[in-house]
Design brief:
198 residues; alpha/beta; Rossmann fold; two-stranded parallel ribbon; 7 helices; binds iron/sulfur cluster
Protein backbone atom coordinates (compact mmCIF):
# COMPACT_ATOMS: atom_id res chain seq x y z
CA UNK A 1 0.00 0.00 0.00
CA UNK A 2 1.34 3.44 -0.87
CA UNK A 3 1.73 5.73 2.13
CA UNK A 4 -0.87 8.45 2.22
CA UNK A 5 -1.70 11.18 4.69
CA UNK A 6 -4.73 10.09 6.63
CA UNK A 7 -7.69 12.43 6.58
CA UNK A 8 -10.41 11.04 8.79
CA UNK A 9 -13.94 12.32 9.21
CA UNK A 10 -15.92 11.29 12.29
CA UNK A 11 -19.72 11.34 12.28
CA UNK A 12 -21.40 11.07 15.67
CA UNK A 13 -25.05 10.07 15.60
CA UNK A 14 -27.63 11.15 18.19
CA UNK A 15 -30.20 8.58 16.99
CA UNK A 16 -32.74 11.04 18.35
CA UNK A 17 -32.66 10.33 22.07
CA UNK A 18 -31.58 6.69 21.60
CA UNK A 19 -27.96 7.73 21.93
CA UNK A 20 -28.08 11.42 22.85
CA UNK A 21 -30.55 10.70 25.68
CA UNK A 22 -27.75 8.91 27.51
CA UNK A 23 -24.44 9.80 25.88
CA UNK A 24 -23.27 13.40 25.73
CA UNK A 25 -22.72 13.29 21.97
CA UNK A 26 -21.56 16.88 21.88
CA UNK A 27 -18.73 16.00 24.27
CA UNK A 28 -17.92 12.89 22.20
CA UNK A 29 -17.78 15.00 19.04
CA UNK A 30 -15.48 17.54 20.75
CA UNK A 31 -13.26 14.70 21.97
CA UNK A 32 -13.06 13.25 18.45
CA UNK A 33 -11.65 16.51 17.05
CA UNK A 34 -8.48 15.89 19.11
CA UNK A 35 -7.86 12.35 17.79
CA UNK A 36 -4.97 11.65 15.41
CA UNK A 37 -5.67 12.26 11.70
CA UNK A 38 -9.20 13.57 12.35
CA UNK A 39 -9.82 16.61 10.15
CA UNK A 40 -13.55 17.03 10.63
CA UNK A 41 -16.24 15.92 13.06
CA UNK A 42 -19.95 16.18 12.40
CA UNK A 43 -22.75 15.45 14.82
CA UNK A 44 -25.90 14.18 13.10
CA UNK A 45 -29.38 13.77 14.50
CA UNK A 46 -29.95 10.63 12.38
CA UNK A 47 -26.82 9.69 10.40
CA UNK A 48 -28.50 6.94 8.38
CA UNK A 49 -31.26 9.26 7.14
CA UNK A 50 -30.78 11.09 3.86
CA UNK A 51 -29.67 14.42 5.41
CA UNK A 52 -27.13 12.55 7.56
CA UNK A 53 -25.76 10.63 4.59
CA UNK A 54 -25.57 13.84 2.59
CA UNK A 55 -23.49 15.40 5.35
CA UNK A 56 -21.05 12.49 5.07
CA UNK A 57 -20.83 12.88 1.29
CA UNK A 58 -20.40 16.64 1.57
CA UNK A 59 -17.62 16.28 4.15
CA UNK A 60 -15.78 13.71 2.02
CA UNK A 61 -15.75 16.19 -0.85
CA UNK A 62 -15.00 19.30 1.23
CA UNK A 63 -12.24 17.81 3.36
CA UNK A 64 -10.85 15.29 0.90
CA UNK A 65 -11.46 12.52 3.44
CA UNK A 66 -9.83 9.13 2.92
CA UNK A 67 -11.24 7.52 6.08
CA UNK A 68 -14.73 7.75 7.54
CA UNK A 69 -15.77 6.73 11.05
CA UNK A 70 -19.45 6.56 11.90
CA UNK A 71 -20.26 6.40 15.61
CA UNK A 72 -23.82 5.14 15.73
CA UNK A 73 -25.53 1.75 16.04
CA UNK A 74 -24.41 -1.81 15.39
CA UNK A 75 -22.73 -2.40 12.02
CA UNK A 76 -25.18 -5.28 11.59
CA UNK A 77 -27.82 -2.70 10.72
CA UNK A 78 -26.13 0.07 8.81
CA UNK A 79 -22.64 -0.99 7.74
CA UNK A 80 -23.97 -1.67 4.19
CA UNK A 81 -25.77 1.71 4.25
CA UNK A 82 -22.62 3.65 5.10
CA UNK A 83 -20.41 1.62 2.77
CA UNK A 84 -22.74 2.49 -0.06
CA UNK A 85 -22.87 6.11 1.10
CA UNK A 86 -19.10 6.59 1.04
CA UNK A 87 -18.85 4.72 -2.28
CA UNK A 88 -21.34 7.17 -3.78
CA UNK A 89 -19.00 9.95 -2.64
CA UNK A 90 -16.10 8.30 -4.48
CA UNK A 91 -14.37 6.65 -1.49
CA UNK A 92 -13.59 2.95 -1.40
CA UNK A 93 -16.39 1.45 0.75
CA UNK A 94 -13.92 -0.50 2.87
CA UNK A 95 -12.33 2.70 4.16
CA UNK A 96 -15.34 3.20 6.46
CA UNK A 97 -15.29 2.06 10.09
CA UNK A 98 -18.03 2.09 12.71
CA UNK A 99 -18.17 2.58 16.47
CA UNK A 100 -21.22 1.08 18.13
CA UNK A 101 -22.20 3.71 20.69
CA UNK A 102 -25.83 2.59 20.86
CA UNK A 103 -26.20 -1.18 21.52
CA UNK A 104 -22.75 -1.34 23.12
CA UNK A 105 -23.09 1.89 25.05
CA UNK A 106 -26.19 4.07 25.42
CA UNK A 107 -28.65 1.19 25.62
CA UNK A 108 -26.68 -0.74 28.23
CA UNK A 109 -25.58 2.24 30.37
CA UNK A 110 -28.84 4.18 30.54
CA UNK A 111 -28.39 4.99 34.21
CA UNK A 112 -24.89 6.40 34.00
CA UNK A 113 -24.53 9.26 31.52
CA UNK A 114 -20.96 10.09 32.53
CA UNK A 115 -19.69 6.49 32.23
CA UNK A 116 -21.58 6.01 28.96
CA UNK A 117 -20.03 9.17 27.54
CA UNK A 118 -16.52 8.12 28.54
CA UNK A 119 -17.10 4.67 27.04
CA UNK A 120 -18.42 6.24 23.82
CA UNK A 121 -15.21 8.29 23.62
CA UNK A 122 -13.15 5.11 24.00
CA UNK A 123 -15.19 3.36 21.31
CA UNK A 124 -14.69 6.29 18.94
CA UNK A 125 -10.96 6.45 19.68
CA UNK A 126 -10.69 2.72 18.91
CA UNK A 127 -12.64 3.07 15.68
CA UNK A 128 -10.41 5.95 14.54
CA UNK A 129 -7.39 3.75 15.30
CA UNK A 130 -8.86 0.84 13.31
CA UNK A 131 -9.75 3.15 10.44
CA UNK A 132 -6.08 4.15 10.14
CA UNK A 133 -5.24 0.49 9.44
CA UNK A 134 -7.92 -0.04 6.79
CA UNK A 135 -6.94 -0.78 3.22
CA UNK A 136 -9.05 -0.31 0.12
CA UNK A 137 -10.58 -3.58 -1.08
CA UNK A 138 -11.83 -4.65 -4.49
CA UNK A 139 -14.91 -6.80 -4.70
CA UNK A 140 -14.70 -9.68 -7.15
CA UNK A 141 -17.17 -12.39 -8.05
CA UNK A 142 -16.23 -15.95 -8.95
CA UNK A 143 -18.42 -18.69 -10.41
CA UNK A 144 -19.12 -21.54 -7.97
CA UNK A 145 -20.66 -24.98 -8.42
CA UNK A 146 -24.17 -24.77 -7.06
CA UNK A 147 -24.09 -28.15 -5.32
CA UNK A 148 -23.16 -29.51 -1.90
CA UNK A 149 -21.63 -32.77 -0.70
CA UNK A 150 -22.85 -34.04 2.68
CA UNK A 151 -20.72 -36.82 4.13
CA UNK A 152 -22.58 -39.14 6.48
CA UNK A 153 -26.20 -40.23 6.27
CA UNK A 154 -26.99 -40.11 10.00
CA UNK A 155 -29.66 -37.84 11.42
CA UNK A 156 -27.48 -34.72 11.19
CA UNK A 157 -26.42 -35.50 7.63
CA UNK A 158 -29.97 -36.21 6.50
CA UNK A 159 -31.23 -32.99 8.09
CA UNK A 160 -28.38 -30.95 6.57
CA UNK A 161 -29.12 -32.44 3.14
CA UNK A 162 -32.82 -31.65 3.48
CA UNK A 163 -32.11 -28.04 4.52
CA UNK A 164 -29.73 -27.47 1.63
CA UNK A 165 -32.14 -29.06 -0.84
CA UNK A 166 -34.92 -26.93 0.64
CA UNK A 167 -32.82 -23.90 -0.27
CA UNK A 168 -32.95 -25.00 -3.91
CA UNK A 169 -29.46 -26.49 -4.20
CA UNK A 170 -28.33 -29.83 -5.56
CA UNK A 171 -27.17 -32.17 -2.73
CA UNK A 172 -25.09 -35.32 -2.84
CA UNK A 173 -25.44 -37.37 0.37
CA UNK A 174 -22.71 -39.97 0.83
CA UNK A 175 -23.01 -42.83 3.34
CA UNK A 176 -20.51 -45.67 3.78
CA UNK A 177 -23.14 -48.13 5.08
CA UNK A 178 -25.70 -49.86 2.83
CA UNK A 179 -28.52 -47.74 4.29
CA UNK A 180 -28.90 -44.26 5.79
CA UNK A 181 -30.02 -43.50 9.34
CA UNK A 182 -26.75 -44.05 11.22
CA UNK A 183 -27.00 -44.72 14.97
CA UNK A 184 -30.63 -43.62 14.93
CA UNK A 185 -31.55 -46.52 12.66
CA UNK A 186 -30.25 -49.00 15.25
CA UNK A 187 -32.61 -47.82 18.02
CA UNK A 188 -35.72 -49.87 18.55
CA UNK A 189 -37.55 -47.18 20.55
CA UNK A 190 -37.40 -43.39 20.25
CA UNK A 191 -38.79 -40.74 22.61
CA UNK A 192 -41.50 -39.46 22.89
CA UNK A 193 -43.62 -41.96 20.92
CA UNK A 194 -41.46 -44.99 21.76
CA UNK A 195 -41.87 -46.11 18.17
CA UNK A 196 -39.18 -47.90 16.25
CA UNK A 197 -36.90 -45.22 14.72
CA UNK A 198 -37.36 -46.36 11.10
S1 LIG B 1 -27.42 5.38 12.09
FE1 LIG B 1 -28.14 3.92 13.62
S2 LIG B 1 -27.93 5.05 15.51
FE2 LIG B 1 -27.93 6.58 13.87
S3 LIG B 1 -30.08 7.18 13.52
FE3 LIG B 1 -29.65 5.51 12.15
S4 LIG B 1 -30.36 3.71 13.31
FE4 LIG B 1 -30.05 5.36 14.82
Amino acid sequence: MTEQTLRTGVFVCDCGSNIAGTVDTEAVARFATELPDVVTVVRNRYTCAEPGQNEIKQAIAEHDLNRVVVASCTPKIHEPTFRQCVAEAGLNPYLMEMANIREHCSWVHKDDRMAATIKAMDLVRSAVGRAAKLEAQDERTFPVTDAALVIGGGVAGIQAALEIAGGGHQVYLVEKEPSIGGVMAALDKTFPTMDCSI
